[in-house]
Amino acid sequence: MSNKETFNEAIYDAKTLGVPKMLILGLQHVFAMFGATVLVPALTGLSVSTTLLFAGLGTLLFHFLAKGKVPAFLGSSFVFLGGYWAIAPNGEAELLPYACFGVVCASLLYIVLAALIKAFGVAKVMRFFPPIVTGPIIIAIGLNLSQSAVDNCAANWWIALIAILVVIVCNIWGKGMIKIVPILLGVVASYVVAAVTGQVDFTAVREAQWIGLPIAAEKTVFAIFKNPDTSLLVTAAITIMPIALATIVEHIGDVSAISSTVGKNYIQDPGLHRTLLGDGLATCLAALFGAPANTTYGENTGVLTLTKVYDPMVVRIAAGFAIVFSFCPKVSALISCMPTATLGGVSLVLYGMISAVGVRNVVENKVDFTKSRNVIIAALILVLSIGINYSTAGSIAFTIGSITISLTGLAIGSLVGIILNAVLPGKDYVYDEESLDNPAVNFEV
Description:
The chain is about 65% helix and about 5% strand. It has helices at about 5-15, 20-45, 50-65, 80-85, 95-120, 120-125, 130-155, 155-175, 175-180, 180-195, 205, 230-240, 245-260, 265-290, 300-305, 310-325, 330-335, 340-365, 370-390, 410-425, and strands at about 75, 295, 395-400, 405. The protein has a two-stranded antiparallel sheet with strand order 1-2. Strands 3-4 form a two-stranded antiparallel sheet.
């Protein structure tokens, strides 16, 4: 049976399943995205309720802009964690809106790139973001996050080890849904052991209301403009915007993976410019109201493969469930009580996977390291991104008038890599928009 026939049969089956079965399929997608989506606010100090709300709303916005054709779910992006911590290293409530402002600025790159792709085509635009640039950037993102994961594990290595082992076992030997949600299962197993051994205080859960609003005005980007710190606004924008290069590559990989799964080329129809615009605007909306950046989720592509039901309506049902859950403060409180070591164990795997995906991006695209230009570009991106991050200052600061701007290593490394790739001779990367098998860059385990 051809891919096209499989796709049409799956759509037909979904429409004849009936409401109860459609709701169950939607819950499967919620189960797949939940662990990774709520882990980001747990790590950064952002609101879990706001995160769930804008994961749902962002997914619906994405579907609207993609003409309702692409069965993708948008959840929290792990790649922006370094950006949040660069601005609010300890999750300071007064600094997180500035980090969210930086994410808003990063989302604008999606919109600009979508416009360029619409005007000039995918291949001409992507030649400026080849694997020799994006691969080392992704590697540096994971390595820069590594210290925080180890520090969190140090709170209780036994609890962290349980999370790590469960993630590994489920990912390697799991079948069906178990293989798709190793992060969620790792969190649950480690959390339960910590609770049974008396290492979790559930007072906040008992005191939380069953129903409440998921948005707090003081945690939105709009709140900082009452008395803004201009230097911090500029620093946040310059620090976080380069991270979007990695998530844009992730988006393209995910859309390619969904296309391959379903048997339809979504890069051509509805078009990569539409899916990028949907992802970018969803991220912008989420960040404005204090939620993490959104990204397309590989876990939900796994659910598509498992169920063989590709109807986007099922994903929109999952988005509806996420919105409903966002109005329950007890869910947010339960996540907030998660042991530090549990977060550490899961993030240790995730951050390592980010760097590993960067290596895979370079290998699968057969980057030629016998060329001096490629060696120089990769070397400078890695050394600047990692070296500056772990230097005494942790950034390079300079003053323009009354504004002090601090550039992180990742921002400098990314800019240097992009500029060098543009000016050095020997560019040979060609993006194939016809292929459904472009190497996917998925940061989820």
